[in-house]
Fold:
Amino acid sequence: TSNNWTTAYSTNTFTFDNTKPSSYVTNPSNGAILMTLGTISGAASDNKTGVANVQVRIKKATDTTYWTGSTWVGSEQWLAATGDTSWTIGSATYSTNTKYFITSKATDGTNNIESVGEGSSFTYDITPPNSNITSPSNGTKFSFAPTISGTATDAVALSNIKVSYYNINSLAYW
Structure:
């Protein structure tokens, strides 16, 4: 008899991943006041199996509606972003003087889904502010530069107020 021995074995390799991926919004920046917003963008990461996909939710703060990609509805909507570690999604139809929340959530290669965080908020404002000079009265004549006072309002926020003088003799502003 022969003493030949054969050991048969096989190996399988697998990755154990129970860590959730992470994602965040990079555009718009949190707290921004915007007149336009073309593309929403962000980033995502996962340290084991990679980012499989990212979804984005656009929520209108005033009436708690969500963007479907074509209209606003009352039920929560998650839209598929393009890309994985660097992602983008098209913008929505926004109402002026309104605050919005944009949130992202990533899913990794083993279907771990990120816990949704706060995301980013912004206010859409295309309405110009109003201003009015209250003193001096229109047409009043002075031999000195008077104190100028007035009011300015905006539905969202005022960032600065500028005043200029116009000299009718030299036809120049200063």
Notes: The mean pLDDT is 90.
